[in-house]
Structure formats: structure tokens, C-alpha cells
Specification:
Two copies of one chain form a homodimer. Chain A is an alpha+beta fold. Chain A has helices at residues 12-23, 84-106, 153-165, 168-174; strands at 30-41, 44-54, 57-69, 111-123, 140-149, 178-183. Strand 1 (30-41) of chain A pairs antiparallel with strand 4 (111-123) of chain B, so a sheet runs across the interface.
Chain lengths: 184, 184
């Protein structure tokens, strides 16, 4: 295994250094991620993301990004953006994928491609209030990875398993998170 | 309350009709939302969203959308998109906002503006594997709404509460979802 030539574009050394540094500085590890949402019309909204807090101070993404969300036309909406529940799938797929690249780098595995499809099954009788036994959100989510890299099937599966084990979005979806909603 | 003049851009009648129709057709209420993710380099990926399944057949958004996700520069990444955990906040804010507009329309409340900020607190010692007692995902998420509409503070709070009660993304975040990850 020629680790020196493996390059998945992840600076693992910086992450290992950060881990060492944050061991002695738990306050710096406290992050706050943010988004600001504005209702446009109907079910259409735009949400802006740029600033966050971490390493003890305010931080900013290089650029601010604005995301349109809406309901599709079959719900009598204008489909001016993807649905809110689809944004959750974007977060899950991208979180696991970033983790796979980072773990592969750490394990000296060269990746050539990582593709995935995510499917979330939802019975909309929940959100329509038809049946109180039907939940509003996803019943099941399935992520299917197709990975091409210099490793055995077993090693690739182990990469994915380790990524799951450390994935923030996987945790948020599979375990309960305390959410407080207030009106000021 | 002049309900006829209230227009938040939500076709509530169509939603009520859909509710009636789906009461007798539970199969049509089974939706599958999808996303396809491709690793680019490092922690950068792009996720495409366009097709979904519902009302018994394949459906498509009017346009396909591609979403970049990455880690920020302070994690030694290139910040080519927002982080995966921020996508979850986009989904939560937009889901609650769409619900508020729909419920307001149904209750004859004219909205003028609905703005919110979402903040998710996360201790990154979890994802870095520093402390196994620290979770990977959000410890707490707080959504703060500022609403201008033709209703009392109490009525506006009730709108938000009803939106929460029927929000798919709020459910996904606050309650466990079964997620299966596999490699093919």
C-alpha cells in the first residue's frame, strides 16, 4: 500500500492536528450552524446560509448561498425549488460521501469514484392529517453506494461503515434531536 | 375575518381535495423522494435532485437542481458548498415556513412576512472522534420565527405549532428514522 501516492484531496493531517488541538480546548469545538429563511409566497421560501460560529469565533463561508424550497405541482404548488424533505437527503448523501473520502485518505485507499442514490419513503397521509398513525416524515431511508477505489469490497464497506459512525447528518436523522421553535 | 380576500398563495382547496381523494387511495399516498450524489474531490460532492415517485407514478420537478456540499476552510477543505449539516437546517426552516403559509391560508389569516433563523449547536469533538460521549450531530436546534400577519400573537403562535405538528422535516429531526446504507 503506497500511502504517499494516495490522494483523495482530503488533508487528513490537518484533521488529525485539529483533533489533537481540540482535545485540550473543548470550548473551541462548540459550533453553531445557521440558516435564515424568508417566506416568498405560497409554499415557496428562500433560505440563506453564510455565517457560522466555531473555533471560538464567527466564521463565514467564502460565499453566501441561497436555496429555494417549494412543494411540487402535484401538491398545487409552483415547484420553485426542491421540497424540504429532499434537502435532508442532500445533507445525508453529502455527509456520508465526505466521510468516505476522509476515511479513505486516512486508510491509504485511493478512490476513483463514489456515487450514491438516496431514497426516502414517506406516506403523505401523515402530513395531510388523514391518519394519525402515519408519521409525517420518512418511514425509511436507503442509501446505496457504488464505489470504485483501490481496495477490496470488504475494505470499501468498512469505509462506508466508518463514515456512518462519524456522520453528523446520519446521527441527526437516525437519533432524536431536541428542536425548539419559537415566535418572537 | 374576510376569508375570501386572504391570499397567501396556497391552494388550500386543492390540498383538502387531495386529502379526501387519498383517504380512499392509500397506495397513492406512498411517496419516494430521491437524490443522487457524486463525489468530486476531497470533501466536495454534488447532489442532483429531480425525480420522485408519488400518486402511483414517476414524477419530476420542473427542473433538476444540483447542490454542492463541502467542508469549510477551517477544516482544511475548499468550502465549495455549504456543509451537509447546514442542508438539514435549510430543510427544517423551509418545511416549517411552507406549513405556516398553508395553515394560515386554511385559517383565513393573511400573512405579510415570515422570517426565521435556525441555529444548530454541534460539538465537533463527536465527528472528530475525540470523545465518545459527544454525539456527532446536533445537540440542539432552535428555530426563531418573526411573523407579520393579520392575527394576534397567540394566533400566530398557534399557526407555528400546527405547522410543527404536520412538518415532515421536524419529524425526521426530532424522531428516529431507520436508515439503511449499503454498498453495491
Amino acid at each position: 500500500m503506497a500511502m504517499a501516492t494516495v490522494n483523495n484531496g482530503v488533508n487528513v493531517q490537518a484533521l488529525l492536528d485539529a483533533r489533537e488541538a481540540l482535545k485540550g480546548a473543548p470550548e473551541a469545538a462548540k459550533f453553531t450552524w445557521r440558516a435564515s429563511c424568508k417566506w416568498q409566497n405560497g409554499t415557496h421560501s428562500t433560505t440563506d446560509v453564510q455565517s457560522f460560529f466555531g473555533l471560538g469565533q464567527e466564521q463565514r463561508h467564502k460565499t453566501g448561498t441561497s436555496f429555494d424550497a417549494d412543494h411540487p405541482e402535484i401538491f398545487a404548488s409552483e415547484d420553485k425549488g426542491i421540497t424540504p424533505v429532499e434537502y435532508v437527503l442532500v445533507g445525508l448523501a453529502s455527509c456520508l460521501t465526505a466521510g468516505i473520502a476522509a476515511v479513505a485518505q486516512n486508510r491509504g485507499i485511493q478512490l476513483r469514484s463514489v456515487e450514491s442514490t438516496v431514497e426516502g419513503k414517506m406516506d403523505i397521509r401523515g402530513i395531510l392529517g388523514i391518519d394519525s398513525d402515519v408519521r409525517n416524515g420518512y418511514d425509511d431511508v436507503k442509501v446505496t453506494f457504488k464505489i470504485d477505489g483501490d481496495a477490496s469490497k470488504k475494505e470499501l464497506e468498512a469505509l462506508v461503515a466508518q463514515s456512518q459512525k462519524r456522520s453528523a447528518v446520519y446521527d441527526v436523522i437516525t437519533n432524536p434531536v431536541n428542536v425548539i421553535v419559537e415566535v418572537v
